[in-house]
Design brief:
The protein is of the alpha+beta class. Helices cover 29% and strands 28% of the residues. The chain has a domain at 52-121 and 158-281.
């Protein structure tokens, strides 16, 4: 009798355990991979070294553009749709802005790039979504034409560039040439009333130090090794992007394309970068 009761008890426990295991399987999705990827999720941004005004012996403000059409910058542009905790840079920024984790600032056409006027996600969304008027022909006689309004919803893939505002300086306390990114500005493709391209326009400015805690937990695709993923903060910290200079601080407060065009503008941008390198190099004796 005791053996019978023992067998019944074991059978009931086994049945409960099996049902619990099945419940666990259905409650949690299967792991999409060999192991749990927690390295980037637990990653923290490298803190900036504190710099005193008295330690800065030289400084130059630079504005540059990251063109997302360049192959080296594709990790910032893709994926087109988020999946597996992998998102494009603009998607990360807009999602964080929508959640209230970061603040966006106005980037008026021909205005200042200072962080003065905060913008909400709804204001930016309203500016990005637009309506175009197109002329269509009726399919029935007399086949006259008529105007129709088409609503165009913003697509994150319309972001073609990012503008950076950064400060290069020499810290005599540490004897190094250092750089700090101050601002990040997404640039969207702009079209006129006829649908023709009119270059790009600024959406808003983000204060980059405020973004670092968000970017440190978002992984970037590594085209060489899927096991060696790093964060967006690592990408900017290690300068793993391609860019070109469009402006340096000057007495006229003008961009390069305001006084040079074409190849001359590209050569001027390279000259500005080279002057920074030479300035640091000439400080030391060998």
């Amino acid at each position: 009798m005791k053996n019978v009761l023992f067998n019944v008890l074991v059978f009931m426990l086994f049945g409960l355990g099996s049902s619990y295991a099945q419940q666990q399987v259905f409650d949690a999705p299967p792991r999409d991979g060999v192991y749990d990827k927690i390295n980037v999720q637990n990653h923290k941004s490298v803190p900036y070294v504190d710099v005193r005004e008295a330690d800065v012996m030289w400084e130059k403000r630079i504005w540059r553009v990251i063109d997302l059409k360049e192959k080296i910058n594709h990790p910032l542009y893709y994926p087109e749709k988020p999946h597996n905790n992998w998102r494009s840079l603009i998607t990360i920024l807009l999602d964080a802005l929508k959640e209230g984790a970061i603040t966006a600032y106005d980037a008026p056409i021909g205005g200042t790039d200072e962080f003065l006027q905060p913008l909400t996600y709804q204001q930016i969304e309203q500016n990005l979504n637009r309506q175009d008027t197109q002329q269509l022909t009726r399919t029935e006689p007399p086949y006259d034409t008529y105007d129709t309004v088409i609503a165009i919803t913003f697509n994150p893939m319309d972001i073609k560039q990012f503008k950076l505002k950064e400060d290069w300086f020499i810290d005599k306390q540490r004897s190094v040439l250092d750089v700090r990114i101050v601002g990040l500005c997404p640039m969207v493709a702009s079209k006129d009333e006829k649908g023709e391209d009119r270059g790009v326009k600024a959406i808003c400015w983000f204060y980059f130090p405020e973004l670092r805690n968000i970017l440190a937990h978002q992984e970037v695709y590594n085209r060489y090794n899927d096991a060696a993923r790093f964060s967006f903060d690592d990408l900017f910290w290690k300068r793993m992007f391609g860019s070109y200079v469009i402006k340096e601080s000057n007495v006229y407060d003008r961009s390069i394309n305001e006084y040079l065009l074409g190849m001359d503008a590209l050569l001027e941008a390279e000259k500005i970068k080279d002057n920074i390198f030479k300035f640091e190099h000439d400080l030391w004796e060998y």
